[in-house]
Structure formats: C-alpha cells, structure tokens
User: Fold this.
Amino acid sequence: MNCINPKMTFLTAIILSVLLLLSGCTEQTEVTDDKAKEESDEKATLILKNGSVYTMEDDQPSAEAVAVKDSEIIFVGNNTDVEKYVGDETQVIDLEGKMVSPGFMDGHTHPPGQWTTKLFQVDLTNLKSHEEYIQAVADFRKDNPDAKIITGRGWKNGPYEQTDGTNPGPKKEDLDAVVSDIPVILNSIDGHSVWVNSKALEMAGINENTEVPKGGMIEQNPDGSPRGVLREGATDLLADVQALFNLTKEQYKQAFLKYQEEANSFGITGILNMSGSTENMEILHELEEDGQLTMRVANAIKFDPGTEPDEAVKTILDAHKKYNSDWLQINTAKLFADGVTEGKTALFLEPYTENAGMGGHHHGEASWKVEAFNKMVSSLDKEGIQLHIHAIGDGAVNTGLNAFEDARKANGERDSRHTITHISAIQDKDITRMAEMDVIASMQPFWFYKDQYYKLEKAMVGKDRALEMYPARKMWDAGVTIASSSDYPPTPDYRPLNGIEIGVTRNSPYPEEQDTNMVRNAAYALTVEEMLQSFTKNVAYQLFREDDLGSIKVGKKADIVVLGQDITKSDPKDISETKVAYTIVDGKIVYEGE
Assistant:
C-alpha cells in the first residue's frame, strides 16, 4: 500500500507525509499495529465451552462458552469464537451440554449455622420426637462429663401440640430428669424459642414474678410458674447463663469453614450473613487476609430494642470503614418487627385462632414501640445504611413499610434498597407499596409448601390464611424484587436447587414426598427462570453488587455455577436432584462434583 502519490510535488509530498505520520497512516505503522494487536490478545486462565449458558443479561440471554482471565469474565459467546482465548496455560473444560448460571447467592443466612451445633453442641435438627431430644441431651452429658453448660439447637414445636390444638412447647422437668446440676439451654430450629431446665431458670432468676420483656413470652404452667420455654425477647433473660458457653475464635473459624465448604458444594458463591457481629467480622477479616474465603460475604448487624440510634449508626459505619472490601461488605442493619407464627409472636392484622391459647383477640406483639422503631429506621436511613427488617405477619410488614415511608419523608428519596424479609403474610395494598418504594422482598422459597411449619401456621391462624402465605406470584407481577434466601439454619437443607424447585412447584422437593398433597397454593408459583433470577441477579441487586455480580457478562466477576442438567428444560420435580458440577468463585474452581 502507498499512502503518497508519486506524482505529487516534492513539497506537497513532504507536508502530506508529516500529516499522515501524525495520523498513523504508514505501511510500517499498520504492520506494527497489527502485530501489537496480535500479541496483546487476551488469553484466558479458564474456559467453559459446549455449555448451555444462562447469562441473566437481556441483550445476550444465552451463550455456548465463557472465557475467564484470573477473576474476570472476558468473553461470553459461541464455541468458535472462544478458541482465540485459548493459550498454553488455559484450563479448558468441555461441559458436554451442562448448564452454566451465575453463582447462587443467599440473601439471608446465619453461618456457621448447624456447624456450630454439629461440632460443639447438642444437635437435634434431624431428630423428630420428644424422646429423641431427651436421649440426645443425656448422651451429650455422658460424653462431656466436665461441661459447665449444655447448649444445642434444632427442636421443633410440632411434637408438643396438645389435644385441644394449643402448643405451649416442652417442659423443664423432662430436661431435669437427665440433667439437673448444670444449665441446659436448647434453641428451637427456627431460633425464636428456647427450652431450658430448672437449673437454667434458677441461675437466670426467672420465676412466676419475672417481668416479660416487650415482644417476648414465657410459657407458663396453670399455676403461673415457668414451663421451661421462653420465646423471642424473653430469651434475652438467659444471656448471663448462655455466656458460660462461648465459641473461641478458632472454633468459630473451624465451623465457618465447614459451612463455607458445604455452601460451595451447593453452588453458593455469595451470601448476606445475618450473624455479622463486630466480633465475627474480625474473624471473617482474618480468614480473608489468609486467603481462606471462597465466597463473598455481605454482613448485617442486628440491633435490639433499647439500642440508641446513634450507637447503631456508629457501629455500622465503623465496621464499614474497617472491614469493607471486595470479599467482605458491611452496610446493613437488621431489626425485628415481630416474632414467628408458631411462637404466637408474629404480628397479624387479624387475630390468631383460639388454638394459640391466647384468647380470641391476640394479634401478636410488635418487637419495638412504634416511635422508637421509626426513629431507628430514619436515623440509619439518613446515614445511607440499608435496613433489613424481619417481618412474618402482615401487621409487621405494614409496620416496616410505614417506617420506610416516614424515613423517605424525613430524609428524602434515595436508592436505599431497604429489605423486608420472610413476609409470610402481606396485604395487597402493601404489595403495591413495596413495589412503588423499591423495597426488596427477601423471601425463603423453602417455606412455600406444606412443610413442617405449615401445620403449626394452620393451627395458629386458620387454614385459609395459611394457604395464602408467601404470595410470590402476586408480588412478582406487581413489580416487587424478590431476592431469594434460605434463613439457614431454621431451614436446615438450604440448597438453592431445592428452593428453586419449591418456588416452581409449591410442593416438597424430596422424592419421598413429591407425589403427596403438600402443595401450598399453586397459583402463587414462579417460573424456573424467575426463581433462578431470584437466587442470582436479584440478590446481587439487593446487595448493591449488580455492577460486578449476579450475571454472566464481560467485565463482571467470574462467580459461576455449572449444573449437571439444564433445569429450565427438565421436569420441575427433578430440579432438586440436579448435581452441581462446578462452583467457581473469582475465576477459581472451589468445588468440583463427582
């Protein structure tokens, strides 16, 4: 190629040559640029090809291949074009048709969860009867004769339903029969009730004259004496006794790493940790410094009634300044608006049934006084802190939305992405309000069928109201962003694939139960694609991470899960049996299935 015409005058040629040199138009420059381009082509560290890729991106919803360089996605496209990213050091995985999705994210969980119990306490989670619970406590005492306290978790309210439909829970005397000289404190599987022996009550100074904290409950015998079960805020009365059992830093690390390993095997690449105390944040920071984190951990810190707003704000902002990073994030405060249905402490607009044993006008009780609650919400919102509010009953959901509205009026509108979690019941008008204010619904699809809690809910609020719970279809269609989560360990089996199947079928995901009538309102089911979005893109949005997580797109983090089959094309009943082939976090394979 000649850029200069030889018939030009000498002067003209010189001038044009200079201009062309400045503009880069010379044969030599062109060759050099081509060579530089060829040499600078990126080579991937990891390539996935021959897959069925679901990107969660509207402009490119599907693909065949993904290329990753270090921690970042550098290509999403077809099998032919991905070949140019293959280098000498590239790991290439032929997926043979397997499904590729953004990594699953759990928008509300409590690590280390059961692993603390499995390693260091009495684990009642997989037991089903009162007799099994008592035997487990007796066995633990036999194996740990020098223990100063016995703690544990996992008992269920179900076995204690009375013939008249009421449910006061288990008794202290049954624990006394096997352990009477040291305190026994056992948390229920939902974490909202505690079963104790007489020694624990004695050491805590709890008797028939004890004043019950607001929002709490002490189950009583007919003579007014404590039965042995404390619910919600009343469990705080046991704090000094509970302090006899404290995990060491190393025990916490051991339990968290076990949880992380299990979560990775389920395809989980990121979570919102609802147990994010400042002490635990320090431990997680140490794990990050040591390169031992294989999931991204956003954290929420819980504040109880009585906490001053200024104290809560300072706690969050200080933790954010000290710990915030790509792997650890902290800008969320958790508040309780009510309790739980099975504990008769959820706040409903309509009263409980007589089976609650609380009379005909019991609605539950708000965890906070309204004025104090609204002040806390507004103070946190003013400082740009995200709120995450526990609300089971429709009365509590209404309370939370009212507080958000007040904060908007006081502080102005902003992209707050405040969240209400659980939402067992909600009024139609509050569904509309949630959508209009962009309040995130952190819901647990694991509870959308007639599970272990349904029978208790039916007894407490009636069949019709229990069947209407978790109206996901109605909320999604109204424009509410549903970010799915597990609330592990109250949900012991927290595999996202289980949650996706239940969200689609509204039925049990377990093969032995799938063909039985455990469906809870099939009209409220979501599609597989919607459920997949709720465990990926929507949680990333909830956590303000949509720019780098939650979908498969060039420039985003390579947090990916590979599934053994395309769950959008399989029988919905088979989704929960789908194998996780690979879990990839930050471009590295952190789990490989068999």
The two ends are 58 Å apart (CA to CA). The CA atoms of residues 41 and 85 lie 8 Å apart.
